[in-house]
Write a structure and sequence with these properties.
The protein has a single domain, classed as L-amino peptidase D-ALA esterase/amidase (4-Layer Sandwich). The strands form five sheets. Strands 1, 2, 3, 4, 7, 10, 11, 14 and 16 form a nine-stranded mixed sheet that branches. It has a three-stranded antiparallel sheet with strand order 13-12-15. Strands 5-6 form a two-stranded antiparallel sheet. Helix 1 crosses helix 2 (126-134) and helix 4 crosses helix 5 (291-311). With 333 residues, the chain is of the alpha+beta class. The longest helix has 21 residues, at 291-311. It is built from six helices and 18 strands. Helices cover 21% and strands 27% of the residues.
């Protein structure tokens, strides 16, 4: 559970808090991004096998203008229950949409599939979501094997025995008085790529397990992929900014943020991934650099956060005897 030095994080964005709950028994977990005063939100789903909740209300033409948190969780569809716990915590703390009869906290959510890592009967639930909210703060969030990234793996196209441990990462970019930050849990079927070198950092390993195979290059050489269950992967995340956005602009920022995934994950947005990115805009900055600049900032923050998810991860051996080294382990060997 490291922090990448000097890289910034999503909590650099005014009005944003992050909390994790990690269940070390498997491991798995969930991460929540809270905007106590509400935030204009958008979403863009690119993967073909998503697991989501409350994404319809983020359509620009729909009534609700702000949400109060976004939940990211492991556990596949079971993990969506973590959002219920977040709703309970937010209601107890007076946060939500006032509908007259009471407060209704609005908590969109997305999940990734980590059920192959250890005992699949252990997964995030409402209590886990509540605990993540209770742990939330403005402090720079931990990265690596925590929260929604606790059970994350990458490089699975040639079988789980050649996969590697990934995790959760965060980063931020600032231009003038506007900040854009990202929190990414990378559980991709593909490799994590360093955009600076175009070389893989973590992903599918060679038969001896000591070096990286290069998934895209291997596919183009004709190496047959291992059969996969649709949705058994997925990269999910939140992009937050203190710029003031409309719902339509928030949606477009989520669209542009996927460019960062395309730089840092290969292959990306596959039939076996449910890649989903949310936008939260708190509107606390006075400046507005324009959507072209914000889009570039979002893509850069996502790419950096995805790389951090690999670099901060630590290798594990699961209870079902699956050995998953991390990027640091291969570098040492």
């Amino acid at each position: 559970m490291q922090q990448t030095p000097g890289a910034g994080s999503i909590t650099d964005v005014a009005g944003i808090e992050v909390g994790h709950h990690t269940d070390t028994r498997r491991p798995t977990g969930c991460s929540v991004v809270i905007a106590r005063e509400g935030a204009v939100a958008g979403v863009d789903v690119r993967g073909a096998a998503p697991g989501t909740r409350e994404t319809d209300l983020l359509e620009p033409t729909h009534l609700v203008q702000q949400v109060h948190a976004v939940m990211l969780a492991g556990g596949s569809a079971w993990g969506l229950d973590a959002a219920s716990g977040a709703m309970r915590w937010l209601e107890e703390h007076g946060i939500g949409l006032d509908v007259g009869a009471g407060l209704v906290p609005l908590v969109p959510a997305a999940v990734l599939f980590d059920l192959y890592v250890g005992d699949s009967r252990i997964r995030p639930d409402a209590a886990a979501g509540y605990a993540a909210c209770a742990a939330a703060s403005r402090v720079r969030p931990r990265e690596g094997n925590v929260g929604a990234g606790a059970g994350a793996t990458v490089g699975k196209l040639f079988g789980p025995e050649f996969a590697m441990k990934s995790g959760l990462g965060s980063a931020a970019v600032r231009v003038g008085d506007v900040t854009v930050g990202a929190l990414i849990a990378c559980n991709a079927v593909g490799d994590i790529i360093d955009p600076r070198t175009a070389l893989p950092i973590a992903g599918a390993r060679t038969a001896d397990g000591r070096t990286l195979r290069g998934t895209t290059a291997a596919l183009l050489r004709g190496e047959p992929p291992h059969p996969l269950i649709a949705g058994s992967n997925t990269t999910i995340g939140v992009i937050a900014t203190d710029a003031k956005l409309t719902k339509a602009q928030a949606r477009r920022l989520a669209v542009s943020a996927h460019d960062g995934l395309a730089r840092a994950v290969s292959p990306v947005h596959t039939m076996a991934d449910g890649d989903t990115l949310f936008t939260l805009a708190t509107g606390k900055a006075s400046g507005f650099p324009g959507m072209v600049v914000l889009a570039a900032m979002a893509a850069e923050a996502v790419a950096r956060a995805t790389v951090h998810a690999a670099l901060a991860a630590r290798g594990i051996t699961t209870s079902n005897a699956l050995a998953l080294p991390a990027a640091g382990d291969l570098a040492q060997s």
